[in-house]
Amino acid sequence: MIIWVNGAFGAGKTTAAREMLDLIPASTLYEPEVLGGCLRQLLPEKRLQEATDYQELPIWRRLVVETAAALLNEVGGVLVTPMTLLRQDHRDEIFGGLAARGIEVRHVLLEPGETILRERIAARRADPAADPTNVPTNVPTNVPTNDPTNDPTNDPATGPTDAPANHPADDRDEPARRWALDRIADYQEALAWLTEDAYLLPTAGLTPRQTALAVAEAVGRGAGACGIVQTPEPRAETVAAGVLLFDDADRVLLVDPTYKPGWEFPGGIVERGESPARAGHREVAEELGLELTRGLELLVVDWEPPQPPGHGGLRLIFDGGRVPTADIDRLLLPDAELRGWRFVTEDEAAGLLPPLRLDRLRWALRAREQGRPLNLEAGHPAE
Known about the structure:
By secondary structure, the protein is α/β, with parallel strands linked by helices.
């Protein structure tokens, strides 16, 4: 199991997580931020400059999952993971990858309130061992250093303040403080989905020990469980079937998976011994509670080349026809797999679908207009 302790920079995640190690048997601290520092040493500078934060790097998100799986295999038990995660698509990718490996995630959000956050960040002081020139640039691996609430001399009566009176904040910390303050707005915006996904723990006035006790008690009674569908990652090429469904305005139906970033068409992997069309019917029924009575018309066959860590394979898109208005009102979503659906125009889909899926959709719509299927490779007509 992983207990993912989320919250804004300054929420006291790492301090509370360290306290939790004494309360949860066989627990180990796992800080994914360390991986950001490793990437700073491994990736070419040009690649680093392309990202404003190491969380934007796909390799970091992949490493978070792979390292967690390897660490659990090595030490077992529970990983306590203090890490700010504000983008829902990053949450989907990481938690979905963990679920695909059979790793249960409990998601807990520490919420001290904006006033306390600003006070803690303003009081932040330097790590004497840190390089004073190592300030947040394009990929901030040392800012924030785990969490700006790690000082062991914090006042236990009031919780972490990060800068005791006898050690005032240093001017060299101003870039770090500014970096963290600038992200409070991102945190406030993310609260809309965080409060729906995570167990919310108000921590104003709590000491780190009290926070840790509250988290341990909540997790012990099942709070924060992320019931994501546990589909094992493929080990070879796969065949997948997607189904385009339309409303009376010819808008196409997209769904929002909980286990991967970006929106998608209803559909999924074709099971052993199953025809692609039958898989399309099955997936639509499982994902939307909709039983299609008509046959599926093939629109595109797309060869997706292997691109590590993906294995690629054949992707077939079918036309499932129009959904009657009465059926639209009765659409059902499995909570462990999908969080939402909507009918969109082709232009609106451009803001929701990842590039390859968008290319596939556009050619599928052209095939529907022309009345003939198209053969694609990597989302474009094969030459």
